[in-house]
Design brief:
single chain, about 20% helix, globular, alpha+beta
Length: about 200
C-alpha cells in the first residue's frame, strides 16, 4: 500500500566537521558554525516494522535525501530507516540514513529523557521530534572509522510537508452531530405554520 510521500526536513548548525572526509564522501566542504540542513523524502504508509522488546524499527527503503552544508548541496538516494525507543530509561526517535554506495551513514533525530508517549509511528514526525529535549545529527564513515566523524551538530527545528491532516476524534464528531441535529430541530420548530 502506498500513500503520499512526505518530506521531513531538519535544520541546525555544524558543531564539528572533517573537511577532507566531507569532500571525499559528498563533494562538499563545511566548518564549525556553518548552517546544516537535511531533507528526507519517503512514504510513511509503505513502511515495514520490526518490534523488539526495547524498540520498534521502521523501514522505508530507498528514499531521496538532500544535504545542505552552508551553500553547498548534495542530493542522493539512501536506504532510510527509523527507530523509536520508548522506555523507562529514556526515549529516542532517530532516522538512520544509509548511503551504501558511499560506505557512509547519517543519524538524525532526538533523544534524552522521557518525552515520547508511544513507540507507534507518529502522524506528525516533525512535531514528535521537536518535543525532544536534545536534537542532533552525526555522520558515520564506515570505510574509515578511525577518522573523525565527517560532521556532527545540533538540530534546531524539524518540519514536515505536507502538513498532516488532522482526523477528528469520535467525541468531536459526536458533539458536532448533536449540535447540528439540535439546530435542525430548532429550525423545524420555527418553520411550522401557527394556527
Amino acid at each position: 500500500m502506498q500513500g503520499e510521500p512526505v518530506t521531513l526536513s531538519a535544520s541546525g548548525t555544524v558543531a564539528g566537521a572533517c573537511d577532507p572526509c566531507l569532500q571525499r564522501l559528498f563533494n562538499v566542504t563545511s566548518e564549525v558554525g556553518d548552517p546544516f540542513a537535511v531533507s528526507l523524502t519517503f512514504d510513511p504508509v509503505s513502511r515495514t516494522q520490526t518490534r523488539e522488546a526495547e524498540f520498534v524499527l521502521y523501514e522505508f527503503g530507498d528514499s531521496s535525501v538532500a544535504l545542505n552544508f552552508g551553500t553547498e548541496t548534495a542530493t542522493l538516494t539512501a536506504n532510510l530507516r527509523a527507530v523509536i525507543f520508548d522506555t523507562a530509561r529514556g526515549d529516542s526517535f532517530q532516522f538512520l540514513v544509509d548511503f551504501p554506495s558511499l560506505g557512509a551513514g547519517l543519524v538524525v533525530g532526538g533523544g534524552q529523557g522521557n518525552w515520547l508517549d508511544t513507540d507507534a509511528w507518529p502522524t506528525d514526525a516533525a512535531a514528535a521530534l521537536n518535543s525532544a529535549p536534545h536534537k542532533g545529527f552525526h555522520f558515520v564513515d564506515f570505510k574509515f572509522d578511525e577518522e573523525p566523524t565527517p560532521a556532527a551538530g545540533t538540530i534546531s527545528r524539524f518540519t514536515q510537508t505536507p502538513q498532516p491532516t488532522s482526523i477528528p476524534e469520535p467525541t468531536t464528531i459526536l458533539l458536532l452531530g448533536t449540535g447540528l441535529s439540535g439546530v435542525a430541530a430548532r429550525r423545524r420548530r420555527h418553520q411550522r405554520p401557527r394556527h
